[in-house]
Amino acid sequence: EPSTPLLRLQELKIAYGGIQAVKGIALELHAGETVCLIGANGAGKTTTLNAIAGVLPIAGGDIHYKGERINALPAHRRLRAGIALVPEGRGIFTRLTVEENLRMGAYTRKDAAAIEADLERVYTMLPRVKERLAQVAGTLSGGEQQMVAIGRALLSRPRLLLLDEPSMGLAPLIVEKIFEVVQSVAREGVTILLVEQNANLALEFAQRGYVMESGRITLTGSGSALLQDPKVRAAYLGEE
Ligand code: ATP
């Protein structure tokens, strides 16, 4: 193995009460990679992402980040360490303005000048968002809200960006725009773990992918290999 992975999950188990949603999975991400986690509804993808972000406790196994075991590290400390989550449903503060939402992303930081500089970078990356800074976020379109959620995550200066179904409920043209933004974030060197039900989109975007079924990882490979895999095509790309 050439280097310590940025993130490593080993035998990870997550339960809701007595129900095991994630049943001992292994996953690795190296710095700078784009990786996706695909699978049907209820496979455990969101659960896995939330556990990495620390918003959900784990029932067994290990999470290592930059070589350190972070199993018990609270979510805000993980955020400060560079793990940012763009949650399912976006998690926008609907009654706050766009600018207030963005600034929330920097709540663990104290470097005021750098925060302003990062805001400017986000405005450059997301011009549509910049036009609406004073608007109440609840009145934005779904696509605009997704942009704000990504922008907010960037305000924490992430090393690892966890994206939960950014395409959900959005028209194809908007999805394309969102993925252009995510691609430019990746090009800046941010490591990305993307959860998607849209397997085609996810596998075209990501260098590598993992397939999750009923709480287990059943298949892994490069994005292009998984796109051509007959099992993946039959189960997730709507082919016989
Ligand atoms: P989706 O794309 O629908 O979000 P998913 O792959 O992300 O699917 P999860 O949301 O992680 O799947 O759900 C995995 C399993 O855990 C499912 O069986 C789900 O019903 C269960 N589950 C999720 N959240 C809870 C909860 N808060 N309480 C109890 N069970 C839950």
From TrEMBL:
InterPro entries, per the entry: AAA+_ATPase, ABC_branched_ATPase_LivF/BraG, ABC_transporter-like_ATP-bd, ABC_transporter-like_CS, BCAA_Transport_ATP-bd_LivF, P-loop_NTPase
Listed Pfam families: ABC_tran
Domain of life: Bacteria
The ABC transporter domain, residue ranges: 7-239
Molecular function in Gene Ontology: ATP binding; ATP hydrolysis activity; branched-chain amino acid transmembrane transporter activity
Keywords noted in UniProt: Amino-acid transport, ATP-binding, Cell membrane, Membrane, Nucleotide-binding, Transport
GO terms (BP aspect): L-amino acid transport
Family: Belongs to the ABC transporter superfamily.
Protein name: ABC transporter ATP-binding protein
Record organism: Thauera aminoaromatica
